[in-house]
Structure formats: structure tokens, C-alpha cells
Amino acid sequence: MRKRLMTGVLAVVLAVAGTFAAGSVVQAQRAHGGGFGGPGGFGHRPGLELLRSLDLTDQQRQQVRTIMESHKSDFQQVHERIRTAFEAQHAAGAATPPDEATIRAKATEVGAAEGDLAVLMARVRTEVFQILTPDQQAKAQQLQQERAQRREQRREKMQQFRQQHQPPPAAPPAGL
What is the pTM of this model? Predict the structure, then answer.
């Protein structure tokens, strides 16, 4: 569920020309389960293809870098909060005996930290969107719609696959 939430948030950021914030989202996802991208780095930047497709000027590219640099410590702080909250939630879930109230409280902390990331990304998205020309903004919105359509198609295919590959229901015992 958390990956789906983060993937949805990632799609929103990517729709604004694949700002460098997209790399931060990927890094936040990796905070939950490891992966590429080292501490303080942005790792893989899946939004670069969108950035190229909008034909940003050198000045716009520099403005995006400046925006991202101005928020770098904010992203690092939020990522650290997410990582810490997730680790605490995991520890609470692994405790014996499990304490439902503690697990729920830790899950709420994870959600709050991820909410802070979503708000930060929305702020950065707004700042980046403002430096785009009207044509670039329209193209970014078009790309967002296309990505949403592809995402929905993948979801539908996965649902069909799961339905086709479900084990048959168990037969009731004989004599009942």
C-alpha cells in the first residue's frame, strides 16, 4: 500500500516535467526497503526523460537545480523522519507479544512523515511549474495524463493476471 501511495505521489511530481524531486521520491521509497541512491544523493532520476521532453532552456534547468538545492535539506529531513518512523513501526510489529496500539501509533507516524513528503513535493512541484512556459505546462499535463492511462492499463492487466492465476477453490469434504 505504501509503495502504491508513493508511486502515485511520484506520478504527480513527474507530471511537472520530471523535476529532480522525482529522484527524492525514489530515495524516500528506498528508505523503506533499501535500494539504490546513497545517503544525501538523489540516486536514479526517473523524471529526466520528461525533463528532456519539455525542452527546457539552460536557464530553466538551472532554475530547477536551484529550486531542488534550496529544498535539499528539507528532503533529507523528511526522508530521515520516514526512515526512523518506518523502522519504529517495523520494530513494533515484530515485538512479542504484539501491542496493537503501539503498532497503530507507529503506523500513524509513518503516515504523517509521508504526508509531509507529499506536501513538500507539492510545494516544489508548484515552484517548478511556475518556471515553465504555457506550452511546457500543457505538455507536462498531457504527459501526466498519458502516464496515468498507462498506469491504469498496467493495473488492469495485473488484476486480470491475478484473476486468471487464482487457485481453484477447495472442494468441500465428501459427505457434507
Answer: 0.64
